[in-house]
Amino acid sequence: MKYLLLLFCLPLSLFAQRFTKAEIARYEQQAKRVTIVRDNWGIPHIYGKSDADAVFGLLYAQCEDDFKRVEMNYIEKLGRTAELKGESALYNDLQIKLLIDTTEAISDYKKAEPWLKKLLQAYADGINYYLYKHPQTKPALLQRFEPWYQLLWTDGSIGAISTADLSVAELKNFYSGEVTAAIAPPKDPEHQTGSNGFAFGPSITASGNAILYINPHVTFYFRPEVQVVSDEGLHAYGAVTWGQFFVYQGFNKYCGWMHTSCNVDVADIYAEKVTKKGDAFFYEYNQQLKPVAEKKITIKYLDNNELKSKTFTTYFTHHGPVMAKREGKWVSLRSFNRSMTSLVQSWQRTKAKGFEEYKKTMELKGNTSNNTVFADNKGNIAYWHGNYVPIRDNALNWSKLMDGTTPATEWKGLHPVNETVHIYNPTNGWIQNCNSTPFTVSGPASPKRENYPPYMAPDGENFRGINAVRVLSNQKGYTLDKVIEAGYDTYLSAFEVLVPALVTSFEKNVKPSDSLYTSLAEAVQLLKKWDYHVSENSVATTIAIEWAQKLTPTITRLYIDQGERDQVENTKLFAANATLTQLTTPLLATLAELKTKFGKWQMPWGEVNRFQRLTNDIQSKHDDAQPSYPVKYASALWGMLPSYNSRPYAGTNKRYGVSGNSFICAVEFGPRIKAKSLLAGGNSGDPASKHFSDQAEMYTQGKFKEVLFYKEDVLKHAERTYHPGQP
């Protein structure tokens, strides 16, 4: 009996983490075929006999570095966040379950080709072997991973799902029955996701080799730096999203790829005319009534340490799930949020041997959320704006709510890649995309707007795109260092519009005898003399950024839909029409806040704007009393090329970075790869590891490290060499 009691006293997770003898034997055999070399920056270089071996080692290494983030990504994609966060996350989970169907992922896994099934099994085995070998790691929910989990999240983008303009708030209003139950939370004006990608052709590089600049702007610590190599031809280096088995932004021996987010229309919403007959719902389509499909979805949620559940009756038309109600009509969503094709494309591009093979991967048309900036070792550079683009009636504005009753609003297949917005080897020799319009991607050599339907590239211009064109148009003889220098240009181009508007209005309307003059004259004069470049010692930078955040939100919107004014147009319109009060009231508030926080408003930017990494909590914690580094960079929202989004946290007066430049890399494709990289903080998620923050100071100064691409170089800088499972 005492043994039985002892068993009941042991934690359930101890038993849940156990694996069968056959599974353990399989893990251990595969581990012998994998070698992980950790270099002097803690970066894992994984060498496997087969591609599947390399995937096994990659996931094992990811779990060593940050199992918490690996697990959290899949808790979210499984629609199980409410089991940790409680009822507040209930409708986020419902949205995921409506758009990402686990039964479809399981079905895809069962019918996957043998080569892909091996990778999927290796993905799960690598994580499960880590859990087996590290019983001290306590998963939040997922005691073991299944091979089909990877098929829930198939493109690597931080923006995992596309919902047109439908919000979780609308979803809650519809399925809770509480018409005014939810209001979409306000967005942080500076916390914009995005990225920069630059490519330089042989005509403008010093060596005559193509160079690629990789600069994603995402949440810090969202992607680690890795290398994966196999005897089956895999040899990729770059950034991998936690829990995925392909290098998302990076390069191999032949070519490199950088993804930037775009607003290509890949999801549309439909107004459905629904009637009820008895207990069943019907919707009108093509002058007929069709039954609305119903599906029961049960979601568990935590409530005072007790796990409860709520079951929803959800509805679907042939367009997709019903997600909202507008003006009395149900609204359904047509989208493409996960597919096996997307995952195949994500993997195959990492093994492409140059431009022609990369173009073949693009023909899969599975990439729903990314532009691609490309370069290869033959000197080719290229750009594709989106990839998965449904064919539609060009006479309609597809950013609006579509009429769901007629076949006229149906998609008509997908555009071939050669019909989408793209450019190959432009005559100017460079390509840039900063989440901006593709029609300035190569200056005068760019694609022409009139040649494409509006839904294919509704993206407008932004101040980062303007700055990129200015910087790249003025130089040749690019080297890796010159590319990095260009990528770190610190000019805030938005303020060449905003600041003159303030100065002109102030000087025109405020007399020296006015109290407003006494309050603001010194600050306005400081801004008038400013050159719009950031620096650690610049007080003008502090004032300008804190002030701009308080202006109209129309100037902070980067992603626009068809027919809408872009960020640059909105900013110029605001500057031209803003009243003195609209310009000076936010400035008065800015100076007052700075005085309250710091005792004076004359605060240099580097004293206010800081980098600090104290814990590995997914929601960062910061403390003004703890050490931190000054950061001269600012939000790319205002036109700066490198991005550093910062904000005050609870209990802090200083601003701390939350997102922006994360993994940054410049790579030259000569006979031998040359590359330099930098990572926010460090590659490890363990605060006790020296690699938790060994790149922090370098990061704040834009100082890059040499990439170790070839094994002989990796071994020269090896800190530890081991097989998965070894201590």
How would you characterize this protein structure?
- The chain has 21 helices and 29 strands.
- With 727 residues, it is α+β, with helices and mostly antiparallel strands.
- A ten-stranded mixed β-sheet has the order 20-18-17-8-7-6-5-2-1-29. Strands 3, 4, 21, 22, 23, 24, 25, 26, 27 and 28 form a ten-stranded mixed β-sheet that branches.
- Strand 13 and strand 14 form a beta hairpin.
- The relative contact order is 0.13.
Report the total helices: 21
Number of beta strands = 29
Helicity level:
25-40%
Strand content: 15-25%
List low-confidence stretches: 1-17
Radius of gyration: 26 Å
How many strands, what sense, and barrel or not for the largest sheet?
A: 10 strands, mixed
User: Gap between N and C termini, in Å?
Assistant: 37 Å
Instruction: Tell the overall outline.
Output: globular
Q: What do the pLDDT scores average to?
A: 94
Structural category is alpha+beta
Protein traits:
alpha+beta, 29 strands, 10-stranded mixed β-sheet, 727 residues, globular, disordered N terminus
Spell out the blueprint of helices and strands.
Elements: H1 2-9, H2 12-16, H3 21-32, E1 34-39, E2 44-48, H4 51-77, H5 82-85, H6 90-99, H7 102-111, H8 114-133, H9 168-176, E3 194-200, E4 211-219, E5 225-230, E6 235-239, E7 249-251, E8 255-261, E9 268-272, E10 274-277, E11 280-285, E12 288-291, E13 293-303, E14 306-317, E15 320-326, E16 329-334, H10 340-348, H11 355-362, E17 370-376, E18 381-384, E19 402-403, E20 422-424, E21 430-433, H12 463-472, H13 480-487, H14 495-509, H15 515-529, H16 539-548, H17 567-577, H18 580-598, H19 605-608, E22 609-611, E23 629-630, E24 644-648, E25 655-661, E26 663-669, E27 673-679, H20 696-701, E28 705-706, H21 711-716, E29 718-722
Parallel strand pairs: 2-5, 9-19, 22-25
Antiparallel strand pairs: 1-2, 1-29, 3-4, 3-21, 4-25, 4-26, 5-6, 6-7, 7-8, 8-17, 9-16, 10-11, 11-12, 13-14, 14-15, 15-16, 17-18, 18-20, 22-23, 24-25, 26-27, 27-28
